[in-house]
Amino acid sequence: MSLAALTSLISLHEVSTAFFHEELAISRKRAAALVTVSTAVIGTVCSLSLGAVGSLQLFGLSLFDLFDFVTGQIFLPVVGFLTCIFIGWYVPHKVVRDEFTNWGTLRGRFFHLYLFLVKYVCPLAILFIFLHQLGLLK
What pLDDT was estimated at residue 90? Predict the structure, then answer.
């Protein structure tokens, strides 16, 4: 589990580091340091909000609970929904097929089913789940 957590951490760290390096022209070393320090500060404050600084709250939630709610209940479904829309409606089907079949090395018998699910079923399912967990749909 520790190895899985470490590799996941590195992959998430790399995305932010690459953004700062490529888009803001910051050296990789500085970008990595910026990402590491900022996430450590945010993580520390969130952790402290569970105990030592428990009185620090926003919208009636501790910072830990607020970050948990925003990432788990808002960002994940919204990004999943937008990813389905992007893959299903914007990315050319040839590109999606190439990825689906590993550039033709795998058979793509279920590609049309996959594309149908990504275009129609998944966005609707994600939307219903999102609205239900927000209490807007019963």
Answer: 96
For the beta carbon of residue 34, count every other beta carbon within 10 angstroms.
Answer: 16
Evaluate whether 117 touches 123 at the Cβ level (below 8 Å).
no
DSSP string, 79-135: HHHHHHHIIIIIS-HHHHHHHHTTTTTS--TTHHHHHHIIIIIHHHHHHHHHHHHTT
The model's pTM: 0.73
Report d(CA 60, CA 45) in Å as an integer: 16
Please state, as a whole number, how many other Cβ atoms lie within 10 Å of the Cβ of residue 76: 13
* Consecutive H or E run containing 62: strand 61-62
> Over the stretch 52-81, which tens digit does the pLDDT of each residue have?
777 777 788 888 888 888 988 999 999 999
